[in-house]
TrEMBL record:
Pfam families: FAA_hydrolase
Record keywords, A-Z: Hydrolase, Metal-binding, Pyruvate
Taxonomic placement: Bacteria, Pseudomonadati, Pseudomonadota, Alphaproteobacteria, Rhodobacterales
Taxonomy, superkingdom: Bacteria
Metal-binding recorded as keyword: yes
InterPro entries documented for this protein: Fumarylacetoacetase-like_C (IPR011234), Fumarylacetoacetase_C_sf (IPR036663)
UniProt xrefs under Gene3D superfamilies: Fumarylacetoacetase-like, C-terminal domain
Keyword flag Metal-binding: yes
Record organism: Tritonibacter horizontis
The protein's name in its UniProt record: Fumarylpyruvate hydrolase
Molecular functions (GO terms): acetylpyruvate hydrolase activity; fumarylpyruvate hydrolase activity; metal ion binding
């Protein structure tokens, strides 16, 4: 007998590559401007400065392979990213121990209603209206960590209809994964099920109905998304 007054919503989750298992998601943290070339293309200084984060709703995650073009926007952009999934949490996590908290890695898209984000920025308001909406984080199946297989380099590439639009390398991240985990843990109580989107290289741009987006970064499972 449940004491909930309404039916609880489904648990947000990401599939695991080569398995029927699911990774349950608690929170989604996203770092902003974590590749220097992307910071420049967005009109900002690429110098290393304290990192900043925003959040997406866990139910923004979508592993269906379809991205429904959202309402109230005519300028929706792709941002290809690597995702880090935490299997352990804590507070004040030392950088030296941070990778011990990682369960696995995957690929994701931080889809952005750029026009709505620009209005929010100009007014000094939060970005959520441009960043956190239905299906705004398409995801590929997660690859579990095996031994010490934490990716620190590798080409991160996004193709739109077969044409390369974004290409960078994981080693170009300004703030590395242990630093991100340690920094977040000073401000939040991290927990198993939290995921971190680690930033996007340069080349972000608009998508249109009918586009096919493909994100790759070996050896992670590729992400293919149809804009519908």
């Amino acid at each position: 007998m449940s004491n909930y007054v309404i039916t609880p919503p489904p648990q947000a989750a990401i599939p695991v590559a080569g398995s029927e298992a699911l990774f349950p998601v608690r929170r989604v943290y996203c770092i902003g401007r974590n590749y220097a070339a992307h910071a420049v293309e967005m009109g900002h200084d690429p110098d290393r400065e304290p990192p900043f984060f925003f959040q997406k709703s866990p139910d923004s995650l979508d592993a269906s392979g379809r991205f429904p073009y959202p309402v109230m926007s005519t300028d929706v952009h792709h941002e290809a990213e690597m995702l880090v999934a935490l299997g352990r949490g804590g507070t004040d996590i030392p950088e030296a121990d941070a990778l011990d908290h990682v369960w696995g890695y995957g690929l994701a898209l931080d889809m952005t209603r750029r026009d709505l984000q620009a209005v929010a920025k100009k007014a000094g308001r939060p970005w959520e209206i441009g960043k956190s909406f239905e299906s705004s984080a398409p995801v590929a199946p997660l690859t579990p960590v095996r031994g010490a297989s934490h990716p620190t380099s590798g080409a991160l590439t996004l193709r739109v209809n077969g044409e390369i639009r974004q290409q960078g390398d994981l080693n170009q991240m300004i703030w590395k994964i242990p630093e991100m985990i340690a920094h977040l843990s000073r401000y939040y109580r991290l927990a198993a099920g939290d995921v971190i989107l680690t930033g996007t290289p340069s080349g972000v741009g608009p998508v249109q109905h009918g586009d096919v987006l493909e994100v790759t970064c070996d050896p992670l499972a590729a992400l293919r998304v149809d804009v519908v």
